[in-house]
């Protein structure tokens, strides 16, 4: 799936702005055909944004069910001879799109785009109405999972509807990424797939172009203004001599342009930024362009004040500047695929990305319920496989994506997890044979049933935080024994994908105690001492980049405070420790 771009042959209308919004309190909107005529009694609502924190009404914030968005847009008469599509960047978690009262498309899953051709539903040279119903209900049929519970009370016979979920970030809801209407020519470039390989100093680009209709394809590769290669055909190989490779810290990008001609005339053109690089796991090393890479960075979230998970270019660029400032070279899109705009920035800034599917909360940390085979079912698996397909189809061309994570902390100690993840990992590797695959684990190395299925061992650990509270002296001993256990059993490179401690900015205590900035720094420092002496450890991602919103709980003080930065992106004490450390450790590092 190509990103929606304006080019010489394509036009785009970005429908970001204020929409009309209405909560469907009784869940009757579909039945009553609310999409058939303009909505009444609406309030203004920005798109893209989560709606939860925008109004002053806690009922809107906490609503479980459907909300409706609507606005008008004009389609110019010049688009008559084109194909017109509607693309929704992401809507959490289920959405149905109507154009002029007729259904255009529906989609499940809140973190990936979907689209439909709407040419036949439009009035050209006129105003059109788009209506989107978005449902934030979680279930075990989709990812991330959750469930609705009815709590009864004799004083309130209808009961209370509560959404339960087992992941640690707030279930922000609404249209989180831009909605775009765009026009392409009747015959056009539908998709481009590019993979790259590296031979010494030379790079090889293998490509495939998928067309709607017919025509002659000409491919050119540009280094700035300089054309460095030209070829033709819908598939082929391009060898580049003395390639400027893409790698973390040195993100060279070429422009790969596909031109489609019909009877000698240009009908469509699409430029794709391409980074030539090769990723491989060999023994206990994670190699980028043949060199052992060391991951320094964070697990992140798409999360900021008021707009929640809504796309925010200001926050995003600030975050990349902070990643650079602190000396990071990578992050994980914990716990769902982030906006495409973020991956383009990662390509540009030279940040390696571990891209994660929204499979989080497939665990029961109290160990009371069985997950695989009972909660996780055939439908979950089917959806999971579809999500992998959609995610890889969207992001396959990004050089920044160096590994797929198919899940975070599943109940991998259950027998049923093996059959499930065998299928998910196999499918992921079929879809993309060029990138390693992982599952981020919280199980013990002796109990996991899936540790051998992945290419890289990724583990999350919270010694001296969730266990042995306050006992920092135990960290080194426990962590070292644990990580050695993983390596001895599976013999794969290890990344510590989460470790950290909550700190409330401004809380100080010496000697350190929990929740102070000193304790967070001391804990992180002690973990890193262990990482430095284990040769098979190829990376450290601190949890989390910034404080973020969660559902309310006794152990959450205005959300999760494990941020190295506050939610407003200001550094805590630990940030200065990491800055000094990460600027000292090179990106390519063999211990
Ligand atoms: C880990 C989860 C992460 C949580 C973190 C925490 O992967 O989503 O936010 O714990 O508790 O288990 O801070």
Provide a descriptive summary of the structure in words.
With 591 residues, this protein is α+β, with helices and mostly antiparallel strands. The chain has three domains: 140 residues, Sandwich (Jelly Rolls), CATH 2.60.120; 87 residues, Sandwich (Immunoglobulin-like), CATH 2.60.40; 291 residues, TIM Barrel. Helices cover 18% and strands 36% of the residues. It contains eight helices and 32 strands. The strands form eight sheets. Strands 25-26-27-28-29-30-31-32 form an eight-stranded parallel β-barrel, surrounded by four helices. Strand 27, helix 4 and strand 28 form a beta-alpha-beta unit. Helix 4 runs parallel beside helix 5 and helix 6 runs parallel beside helix 7. The protein is globular, with a radius of gyration of 24 Å. The mean pLDDT is 97. The site of beta-D-glucopyranuronic acid has 10 residues, from loops.
Structural class: alpha+beta
How are strands sequenced across the largest beta sheet?
25-26-27-28-29-30-31-32
Please report which band the strand proportion falls in: under 5%, 5-15%, 15-25%, 25-35%, 35-45% or over 45%: 35-45%
Distance from first to last alpha carbon: 40 Å
Profile the largest sheet: 8 strands, parallel, barrel
Tell me, what's the shape? globular
CATH fold-level label of the largest domain: TIM Barrel
Q: What is the mean pLDDT?
A: 97
CATH superfamily of the largest domain: Glycosidases
**Rg result:** 24 Å
Q: Tally the helices: what do you get?
A: 8
Q: Report the uncertain regions.
A: none
**CATH class of the largest domain, please?**
Alpha Beta
Helix content: 10-25%
């Amino acid at each position: 799936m190509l990103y929606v771009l304006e080019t010489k042959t394509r036009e785009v209308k970005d429908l970001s702005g204020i929409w009309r919004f209405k909560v469907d309190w009784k869940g009757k909107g579909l039945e009553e055909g609310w999409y058939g005529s303009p909505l009444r009694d609406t309030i203004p609502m920005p798109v893209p944004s989560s709606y939860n924190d925008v109004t002053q009404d806690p009922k809107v914030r906490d609503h479980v069910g459907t909300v409706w968005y609507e606005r008008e847009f004009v389609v110019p008469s010049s688009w008559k001879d084109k194909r017109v599509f509607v693309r929704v960047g992401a809507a959490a978690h289920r959405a149905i799109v109507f154009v002029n009262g007729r259904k255009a498309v529906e989609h499940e899953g809140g973190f990936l785009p979907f689209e439909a051709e709407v040419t036949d539903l439009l009035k050209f040279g006129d105003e059109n109405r788009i209506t989107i119903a978005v449902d934030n209900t979680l279930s075990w049929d989709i990812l991330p999972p959750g469930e609705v519970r009815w709590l009864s009370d004799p004083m309130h016979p209808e009961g209370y509807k509560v959404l339960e979920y087992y992941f640690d970030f707030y279930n922000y809801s609404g249209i989180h990424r831009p909605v775009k209407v765009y026009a392409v020519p009747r015959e056009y470039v539908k998709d481009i797939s590019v993979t790259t390989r590296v031979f010494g100093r030379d790079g090889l680009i293998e490509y495939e172009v998928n067309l709607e209709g017919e025509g002659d394809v000409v491919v050119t590769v540009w280094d700035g203004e300089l054309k460095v290669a030209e070829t033709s055909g819908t598939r082929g190989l391009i060898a580049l001599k003395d390639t400027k490779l893409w790698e973390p810290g040195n993100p060279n990008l070429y422009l790969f342009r596909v031109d489609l001609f019909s009877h000698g005339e240009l009908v469509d053109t699409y430029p794709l930024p391409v980074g030539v690089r090769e990723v491989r796991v060999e023994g206990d090393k994670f190699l980028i362009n043949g060199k052992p890479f060391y991951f320094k960075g964070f697990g992140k979230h798409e999360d900021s004040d008021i707009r929640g998970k809504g796309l925010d270019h200001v926050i995003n660029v600030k975050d990349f500047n902070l990643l650079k400032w602190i000396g990071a070279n990578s992050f994980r899109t914990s716990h769902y695929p982030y906006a495409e705009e973020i991956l383009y920035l990662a390509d540009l800034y030279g940040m390696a990305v571990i891209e994660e599917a929204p499979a989080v909360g497939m665990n029961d940390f109290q160990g009371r319920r069985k997950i695989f085979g009972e909660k996780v079912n055939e439908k979950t698996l089917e959806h999971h496989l579809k999500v992998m397909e959609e995610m890889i189809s969207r992001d396959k061309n990004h050089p920044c994506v160096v590994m797929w994570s198919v899940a975070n902390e599943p109940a991998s100690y259950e027998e049923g997890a093996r059959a499930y993840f065998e299928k998910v990992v196999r499918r992921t590797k079929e879809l993309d044979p060029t990138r390693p695959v992982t599952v981020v684990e919280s199980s013990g190395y002796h109990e996991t049933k899936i540790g051998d299925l992945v290419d890289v061992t990724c583990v999350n650990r919270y010694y001296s935080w969730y266990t042995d509270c306050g006992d920092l002296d135990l960290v080194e001993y426990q962590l070292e024994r644990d990580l050695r256990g993983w390596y001895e059993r599976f013999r794969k490179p290890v990344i510590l994908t989460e470790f950290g401690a909550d700190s409330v900015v401004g809380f100080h205590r010496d000697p350190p105690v929990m929740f102070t900035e000193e304790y967070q720094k001391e804990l992180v420092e002690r973990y890193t001492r262990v990482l430095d002496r284990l040769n098979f450890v190829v990376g450290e991602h601190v949890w989390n980049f910034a404080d973020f919103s969660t559902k309310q709980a006794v152990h959450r003080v205005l959300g999760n405070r494990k941020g190295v930065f506050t939610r407003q992106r200001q550094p805590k004490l630990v940030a200065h420790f990491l800055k000094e450390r990460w600027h000292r450790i090179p990106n390519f590092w063999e211990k």
